[in-house]
Design a protein that fits this description.
Radius of gyration: 17 Å
Number of strands: 5
Order of helices and strands: HEEHEHHHHHEEHH
Shape: globular
């Protein structure tokens, strides 16, 4: 749990930062956000791509989830938000949760299940990563995940079969490669249009992530 605790402490520190929010024109590259060189691919289309790199196993991501929802709601019509699960904390259940996310996405239930998965992990639910009685770390299985996601209209058998498919393995490898290429090394991190990387620490607080991302979306919109 050490790496997750590091992420949580970093997130709490960022969320409690007392620095005054700068005016939009004062957001600075290299300070409040970082330029990704070279820029990385996006899904294409006419929407500006806003990505939260996260893990269901990350305590900071669990705490950030309500702000992520507010960020999504605050985006203009020409931007869209999506989620890319990280797996780099292999000592814990991050790879399993990454696999579960892509499986739910492939089965068309991710919009229903995404927000509900955090309390399933952190509220002593069916995907809990700690034993409620002893506090010891436990690792849910793909079968545990299948039982949880079955409530959204897919059979546990189909979930397990899809989770172990070549397509899901490929999605996981692509996500890992994209995360590495964007320089993301902690969660939650926001990546805007494959060009800019923002964290709570860089923005000055979790709350500041929203106006920083809005500024970067506007920058992409105007070509500034």
């Amino acid at each position: 749990m050490l790496k997750s605790l590091v992420f949580l402490l970093a997130g709490v520190a960022a969320a409690s930062a007392s620095a005054q929010t700068p005016a939009p024109g004062q957001w600075q590259a290299g300070k409040h956000y970082f330029v990704i060189e070279p820029p990385q691919s996006t899904p294409g289309g006419d929407k500006i791509d806003v990505v939260e790199v996260f893990s269901y196993g990350c305590p900071a991501c669990n705490s950030f989830a309500p702000i992520a929802d507010r960020l999504k709601a605050a985006l203009p019509p020409n931007a869209q938000m999506r989620y890319v699960p990280a797996s780099f904390n292999t000592a814990e259940s991050w790879p399993l949760f990454q696999r579960a996310f892509f499986t739910a996405q492939a089965l068309g239930i991710i919009d229903k299940s995404h927000n509900a998965t955090f309390p399933a992990v952190w509220g002593n639910g069916p995907l809990s990563i700690r034993d409620a009685a002893t506090g010891r770390m436990i690792k849910p299985t793909i079968e545990d995940a299948a039982k949880f996601y079955a409530q959204y209209g897919v059979s546990a058998e189909d979930f397990v079969a899809t989770a172990n498919s070549f397509a899901i393995n490929t999605s996981m490898k692509r996500a890992d490669a994209w995360i590495k290429a964007t320089g993301v090394d902690s969660t939650p991190t926001i990546v805007v249009n494959g060009k800019y990387r923002v964290t709570g620490l860089s923005a000055g607080s979790w709350e500041n992530i929203i106006p920083v991302v809005q500024y970067l979306v506007q920058k992409e919109t105007t070509g500034g």
